[in-house]
Design goal:
The structure holds 2 protein chains of 2 kinds. Chain A has helices at residues 42-49, 71-76, 93-101, 109-118, 132-144, 162-175, 191-196, 214-220, 233-236, 256-263, 274-283; strands at 5-13, 18-26, 31-35, 57-62, 65-66, 78-81, 150-154, 182-187, 199-204, 207-213, 222-226, 239-245, 248-253, 268-270. Chain A is of the alpha/beta class. Chain A has 2 domains: 5-214, P-loop containing nucleotide triphosphate hydrolases (Rossmann fold, 3-Layer(aba) Sandwich), CATH 3.40.50.300; 221-283. In chain A, helix 4 (109-118) packs antiparallel against helix 5. Chain A is elongated. Chain A starts with a strand and ends in a 5-residue tail after the last helix. Chain B has helices at 2-10, 13-29, 36-59, 62-68, 73-105, 116-140, 146-169, 174-184, 188-216. The chains are: A alpha/beta, B mainly alpha.
Chain lengths: 288, 219
Amino acid sequence: MAPVLEVRDLKKSFKDFAINNISFTLEKGYIMGFIGPNGAGKSTTIKLILNLLKKNDGEIKIFGLDNIKYEKEVKNRIGFVFDENYFYEELTVMEMKRLIASFYKNWDDRVFNKYIKEFSLPPKAKIKELSKGMKMKFSIAIALSHDAELLIMDEPTSGLDPIIRSELLDILTFLIQDENKSVFFSTHITSDLDKIADYITFINHGSIVFSCAKDDIVEKHGLVKGPKEILNADVRKHFIGIKETPYGFEGLAGDRQQVKRILGDKAIIDKPSLDDIMLYYAKEVQNV
Amino acid sequence: MFNLILKDILIQKRNLLFGVFYILIMIFALQQAGSAMFAASVMVFSYIMVQSACAFDEKNKADVLLNSLPLSRSTIVTARYISTFVFAAISMGYYLLFLGIVKVFELPIKVYIVSLEGIMGALFALVLVTGIFFPVYFKLGYIKSKSINFVLFFGIFFGGTILLQELMSDKDNASIQAIQQFLSKQSDILIAVEIFAVMILLLVISYLFSLHNYKKREF
């Protein structure tokens, strides 16, 4: 069966930024976290997937279909949530819903009304009267009401308070219990993904650093803390980045087992969080 | 498509209400204008509605939303062209409403009767202005096309008025006489059909440019 989302050798250049040959694949039934610092190319990639930006080269397939050739068909099966409000502020919740619903083949008002109730969204309120959290919930209700098989979310949690963020993650966890649904979720708040993501794709400076199962990434890497004296040139080679302080060092090792063998009990080696991993890769902390 | 057009109206409910006053102001301002009163009233209010619809789209970054939906870019462009005529119909409705009120209550205000000439004039002016504006708008968006819009509106509205006045006052001019002769040989209906044909041609060319520009646009 074709993957839900397949990006191959995607290229896009701007005056001062480029997406360089990026590739990754999301299989059906999984949540992929798309992480990277601000300006790494996350939103650009999502806009290329949705054909809001025109690619220079490469291939994007959604449900095995070309995203441009079968644009309408593919978009009927996608739900999207953006980081900011793209709804008409002058319209009410129901007016906006009516406009959007009219374009989807499989729109289900019962599902929408269920979410409206669940999220306590006032149907007669104008979009501009909703708080940021409410707008995000409305956006999610819209994205989930046409039986979308793939949910594409661009920084949906940014600017939300922890309670609404947690609610959103619960919804996604519930949603993914249906094996026909997949989620592509971009964020720079990696802690959101610790709970829910199955795969992580990490983009930095417009290039993919890695794209693999979250557990593998966390298992493979090691967060090493120890005295500076043990840091010789041979040891340093095994690190993606090292932060040195007057009292010692902390660094991210690409292969935890190997570093464990080399350093033994001279250092403390922990599992890193996704945050640690992104930080060391993105900051390119001294790696000599 | 229908919902996109309805959206263009719903997002500017307030303008729709103020439309009553716009048309009223135009009627008062153009007491001496004859049948041009209708054409100018309809054209000005329709154009305000068109501009406002485009401005609301830009303000709400609607292009991102609309182009993420299962909706082709040609539908978005077509809807905006049709909206323009819906706005014209609304403007005409308002004008007729005032005409009716003035006639029924025998108010001491001149509201000139709607003629075929007036309808054709209003539509032609509207098609001309939007026909030039839309391809630029669909390429650059509302903010960037604003300066062109300014020149267009005042150029055609005032330039057109001045040109018409000049032509009317210079009745001895040979070329004007030739045009008058040419037109006087034709029936009103034939002239209307000719203007209509030019309008359609203008619309088609404008639409194709708009479509071409919007299909290439990035958001």
